[in-house]
Amino acid sequence: MGIMVRFCSRYWSVILPLVAGVVLAATWGRSLNPFVAVLVAVWLIGAVLSAVHHAETVAHRVGEPFGSLILAVAVTIIEVGLIVTLMISSGEKAASLARDTVFAAVMITCNGIFGLSLLVGALKRRFTVFNAEGTGGALATVATLATLTLVLPTFTTSEPGPIFSGSQLIFAAVASLVLYGVFVMVQTVRHPDDFLPVEGGPAQSEDDEHAEPPTKKQALLSLGLLLVALIGVVGLAKVVSPNIESGIAAAGLPQSAVGVVIALLVLLPETIAAVRAARRERMQISLNLALGSAMASIGLTIPAIALASIWIEGPLMLGLGATQMVLLALTVVVGALTVVPGRATLLQGCVHLVLFSAFVFLAVSP
């Protein structure tokens, strides 16, 4: 028994993705009773945790800022897979699912993860520092993408309602891809120093400074297991999604809460990784993860949904309501005021977390 426990504790990151795949194969296409759904959710969380572990292993091998980019893209793959599969299976009921999920992702990353990282960093020291140039550029890109894809559809007149016309949707998709592509080029090729931890900031722990990067073989193994874990996350989330939808309906919550639950689920890896980085006093990496995820969520999800809309019947509602636009505008303004000084205290973290709390409260009680 002791040998088995030691084996599992050592190789949990290998076992969890593989078992998640077995659970997915056993439950795919079946309706689940509440007890089985809870068990599937447990393995889903396990797959998420293993995805975080393997993404961090690959990130350690390739270094920053590529590491943050890998995890952001991996999480976006989960998000796109969930949105597309739910839109196909739910039909017109899911017309606003893409909007609700993407907006929730923006609020979770720019307020929830952002604020939690600042809070954790500031609790350890009196203040935390980061690179204002890179973080400011990332925030500006997120604000532009969110406005182009989520705000403008409410005010365009070619189609009735908060809907883009075909040509407008193509423009928004192409503009999103271009902006995201340019940002990735700037982050990884042109100005990578803007996204690295600030010199002269709080010292990193000795473990971080001297930890040897994984070997190429270990990194490749983690990359393969990361893909397996992501498939498990997407598949298991799809399996339990009917239970989530029925549970939300039974609780009397609005349909938009489904998007919030999906976003919270897929961003769990980013949240864990960002908080870990903040605890190790690597605030820039935390902010890279938060804003990079928001950017990827819009810049990659919207083009993918636009392409999928060719085969998906029904309207694609992207425009935000008045309450959501107010929260988005306040998030951008507060985020800019937080980023400009290049340092933050406990106060800034609490402000962002209050904004996140307001978003969650209004999502369940509009």
UniProtKB/TrEMBL annotation:
Residues 35-188, 222-363 form the Sodium/calcium exchanger membrane region domain. InterPro entries: Alkaline_pH_Ca-Antiporter, NaCa_Exmemb. GO terms for molecular function: potassium:proton antiporter activity; sodium:proton antiporter activity. Pfam families: Na_Ca_ex. It comes from the Bacteria. The keyword Transmembrane helix applies. It is a multi-pass membrane protein. GO terms for cellular component: plasma membrane. Keywords: Membrane, Transmembrane, Transmembrane helix. This is Ionic transporter y4hA. It comes from Nocardia terrae. The lineage of its organism: Bacteria, Bacillati, Actinomycetota, Actinomycetes, Mycobacteriales.
